[in-house]
Structure formats: structure tokens, C-alpha cells
Amino acid sequence: MSLFLQETAEQIVEEPIVHEKSESLLSLITAGGTAGTVIIIVLIILLFVAFYIYFERLMAINKSSKIDDNFMLQIKDNVANGRIDAAKMLCAKENSPVARLTEKGISRIGSPLEDINQAIENAGKLEVYKLEKNVSILATIAGAAPMIGFLGTVIGMVLAFRQLAEAGGSADMGNLAGGIYTAMITTVAGLIVGIIAYIGYNHLVVKTDKVVHQMEANAVDFLDLLNEPA
């Protein structure tokens, strides 16, 4: 009996102790080697830039879309009664793309209708340019991030095949794992950043289009007001 216990104790001592390995975010980033780490850092920077542009533009567009429902009614009342200065003050108080377009039209009252329409169109182009500020950068990130990730894929595969060539075609999986890991992790990171930027870009485009349609509708209302018979 004592011999059996002794053998059991010796087996327990000889068995290796298995420790669970937990991967931190930093270790995942650096595990792909220098090339993989550089590419991941670039993608992280692009992700932060994409988030900043998206939220900054989203707040600006939401602010631009807010307008008093009675704004055009008050403008029509002031213009119809000859209170041009009061209409201009109302536009300045509203301080929105629709109000600025309306103010541009009011300031041209007395000119030919075609000139007023052209002035409103020019002001509208300027307002759209302001709304779309830096949105093109978001589109660029959406396209560039996956390509940067694919660059990491190519670099990782080159490293893996170089290991295979240096080992004379008999390299073990441990030597190839580093290159393959670099290829996979950079691809995943690039696609994640690209998808986030792409969704954000399209959402901003939809929000901007709504503001543009709002400006067009109010511009038509203002021109109709000027066309009304006295």
C-alpha cells in the first residue's frame, strides 16, 4: 500500500503544471512582429480619426437640421408686410443653413428673380461644402484601411515563406506561425476599421442629404413667396 502511494506521489510531482495563458490587447498587437505592430498602430490611429470625424460631423449636421417649424411662416409674414429688416434679424437669430439661404434671398429682394435664385444656389453650394467638411477623409479611411490590412497580409506571408526557404523547406509550424499571425491579425484589423468608417460615412451622407433637401424645400417656398402677386 505504501509503495502504491509512493508511486502515485511521484507521478503527481512529475506531471507538468499547466498555466492558463491570457492574451492582453498589447500582446496581441505586438505578437505579429515589428511590421505587424506598425500596421496595427496605423490602423488604430485611423480608427480614432474616423471616430472623431464622424461624431464631430454628426453633431454639426444635427445642429444644422434644427429649425423652428414656424420660421418660414414668420418670414412670409414679414416680407409680405414689408418688414425686411425684421426678416433679416429672424434669419440671423435662427443661424442655420436654411436661415442663411433665406437671408441671402431677402438681401436680393428688388433684383430680378433669376438673380435671386442664382444667389440662393451659390449660397447653398457653400452650405453643402461646410456640411461635408472632412467627410471625404472618412471615405478615404473606409477604402484605405482594408488595403493597409492586406499589406500586412502580404508582409506576413512573405515572412512565413522566408522562414520556410531558410529552413530548406522543412520549417516547423512554430517558425511559420509568426508570419501567418501577422497576415491574419492585420487583415482583421483593417477590415474592422474599414467597415466602421464605411458605415459612418454613409450615415453622414444620408444625414447631409436630409439637410440639403430641407434647404431646397425652403428655397422653393421663398421663391414662391416672391412670385405671389401683390
UniProtKB/TrEMBL annotation:
It holds the Pfam family MotA_ExbB. The chain crosses the membrane at residues 25-55, 135-160, 180-201. InterPro entries: ExbB/TolQ_transport (IPR050790), MotA_ExbB_proton_chnl (IPR002898). The keyword Metal-binding does not apply. Its main location: membrane. It is a multi-pass membrane protein. Residues 94-216 form the MotA/TolQ/ExbB proton channel domain. One of its GO terms (cellular component) is plasma membrane. Keywords: Cell membrane, Membrane, Protein transport, Transmembrane, Transmembrane helix, Transport. Signal peptide: none annotated. It is found in: Cell membrane; Membrane. GO terms for biological process: protein import. Belongs to the exbB/tolQ family. This is Biopolymer transporter ExbB. It comes from Nonlabens spongiae.
